[in-house]
Amino acid sequence: MPDVPAADRFADTSGRAAVDRFAGRRVRHEDGSEEAGRLLARLTALERTAELAHDRLPPADLAAIADLLDHADARLGAATWHTVVALAGSTGSGKSSLFNVLTGLRLAETGARRPTTRAMFACAWDFEGAAPLLDLIGVEAGNRVARHGALDARRGGMPAGLVLLDLPDHDSLDVSHRNAVDGVVAVADHLVWVLDPQKYADALVHDRYLRPLRHHGRSMTVVLNHADRLGPADLAACLTDVRALLAADGAAEVRVLATSPETGLGIAELRRVVVAAAGSGEASVVRLSADVDALTERLDEYFTGVVPGVDAFTARERDALVDDLCDAAGVGVVAAAAG
């Protein structure tokens, strides 16, 4: 996308190309799901909202809309049969050990030096088909490994469309590693947050990631790893505490598991989570729908009250904007279901 200010981009509606790209797109999912259709309608409505309010909304919000529309267009057009599942966590959380167990290969290094030595790693079960998606995410060619074809998929119980990422530590001292994590967290179809019994309450992961992603409960799983280091009573207490912290973050919907690569505790359940996410063919739609939820909540204040520094809308403008914003938020779908 050319480097054009968002306000200017949305002001030019002569071609209505952005709306057409969603209104005319058919997402290739096995079940032709209604959720995919709703997502496309909501993206179209979000684009229309930005067009109507381009001279009233702050540049940061217009830029956020433009970024989401561009990413949705790219993601829905790149390897739609594939699902990106990312393992994210802090130093020592055991992401790489889980990555190795899930892939059945020893691909990712483990140990204290990894935050300063490695970038993100990817394992793809359909290596060639996943290439456009890996390019979009920014995984370097040398950090991609193939889990060859249907035979390996059957042996490992993993869908052929799975792309599994092992991310650098989000608390790495290397800024480029933290930036890489942030980039993938913003776009991965399903995020598995790997927490450590000693650091699961750290403010960094909650303030920087889990709380801002509170709308993404269906697109996230939280794993309390190294569970073998705790006795039964302590493990139960930690899991209760993790769930309470997630509820305080507004993310009570997120699934919580206990795992141990060393003993195998919880690995089968985690594998089922990954298989369900990748096998449904809907993970990218679910993730993008949550992104739209978060953005429409952010925009809602402009149409429900007076915002300092934002010019008031006329009654006609407000009615048109509210209609489009309601479409983007999926209000019509909810009303129809309740009706």
Characteristic terms for this protein:
Rossmann fold; 51% helix; alpha/beta; single chain; 7-stranded mixed sheet; 339 residues
Helix percent band = 40-55%
Query: Can you summarize the main beta sheet?
Result: 7 strands, mixed
Name the strands of the widest sheet in spatial order.
3-2-4-1-5-6-7
- Extract low-pLDDT stretches: 14-19, 27-31, 112-117, 331-339
Principal-axis shape equals globular
Give the structural class: alpha/beta
Under CATH, the topology of the largest domain can be stated as: Rossmann fold
The level 1 CATH classification of the largest domain is: Alpha Beta
Number of domains: 2
| Helix run count | 14
Average pLDDT: 81
Report strand %.
5-15%
Q: What is the CATH architecture term of the largest domain?
A: 3-Layer(aba) Sandwich
CATH superfamily of the largest domain: P-loop containing nucleotide triphosphate hydrolases
Q: What Rg do the Cα atoms give?
A: 21 Å
What's the topology here?
Blueprint: H1 6-11, H2 17-23, H3 34-52, H4 59-77, E1 83-89, H5 95-103, E2 121-124, H6 127-137, E3 144-146, H7 149-156, E4 162-166, H8 175-185, E5 190-195, H9 203-210, E6 220-224, H10 232-248, E7 255-258, H11 267-279, H12 283-304, H13 315-329, H14 331-338
Parallel strand pairs: 1-4, 1-5, 2-3, 5-6, 6-7
Antiparallel strand pairs: 2-4
Helix pairs in contact: 2-3, 3-4, 3-12, 3-13, 4-12, 12-13
